[in-house]
Amino acid sequence: MSALEKSMHLGRLPSRPPLPGSGGSQSGAKMRMGPGRKRDFSPVSWSQYFESMEDVEVENETGKDTFRVYKSGSEGPVLLLLHGGGHSALSWAVFTAAIISRVQCRIVALDLRGHGETKVKNSEDLSAETMAKDVGNVVEAMYGDLPPPIMLIGHSMGGAIAVHTASSNLVPSLLGLCMIDVVEGTAMDALNSMQNFLRGRPKTFKSLENAIEWSVKSGQIRNLESARVSMVGQVKQCEGITSPEGSKSIVEGIIEEEEEDEEGSESVNKRKKEDDMEVIFVLFLWGLPSETQNLLFFLQTKKDHPYTWRIELAKTEKYWDGWFRGLSNLFLSCPIPKLLLLAGVDRLDKDLTIGQMQGKFQMQVLPQCGHAVHEDAPDKVAEAVATFLIRHRFAEPIGGFQCVFPGC
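RESULT FIELD:
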């Protein structure tokens, strides 16, 4: 963290100018990055993993909504992929490359409303009912009255929306359903701590590279390859100035980086000069009215940290209960082949445990993954989905793919 950011913690001017490199009060959300071997955190384009991109227009009472989809493949069933809250269709990029190489299928990865590049009239309505209708409307807009066989695959929030879509019969050609690391009991228990988790994230990033680095080092996405394409859909460049009060949230949660110095003293001297300039800036602010101080500090911080989250998940809290309550029974009641992929068996709730013992769905646990299972272990998830498709004769293997049927 720079000297200016330390001295301006929570938007307050210090009682005296800080010395270059001196400490200051530190936010609990901040993360210190230790030195180590440099890795490439530069962003990667969607076109490295998907064959095409399309904006699908959906007519409604208030006009037109536009839903961004990424596509691959030309034959076989459609795998309609729904991302988790705060993520985007790009979270499926590496998985797409993996599954396309194993079975004959088509991929349609959708940016849900309020996420990614999708543009809708009411982006704040993230109810399960509305988003499930969106999925059905996109399918109808893309394929008309005769859609191809479709399998819904959803992660976290997207898994819940997939179940709501299936249970409401909004996709007439639905042949299968897959939920990834979402279980009603675990999800409902986690809701109480979700706001604390969101408050613990950085509010802004210096660059896309900085956002990608944070996602990997914080463990949100454990796979660097996926993070480099996925984070592009999670953050955006800051737009406009809301108010001088914004400076308080801008500073909280900034990552402190300790880069490996390749040029030795030259890098140290460069940082010292930057710190000296920031001290001068603080001294300059002292002679100005407090409102002007806040505004100028906000502008300076915004310049240094121009990226923020595309969606404020904290403001979607009123919809969380509707996404997950009753999810297990809805999932079990869907009269189609079902697959549940989990990062740990401890995530199973009572209803799903009984249902799994009764053979109502296929389950596979993929250990050593975080919550973003399909990003952390895209090859393992692709293998599980490909095996499921072949087992039910929904798709044909390609490239010499050999199924290994799990025991559960």
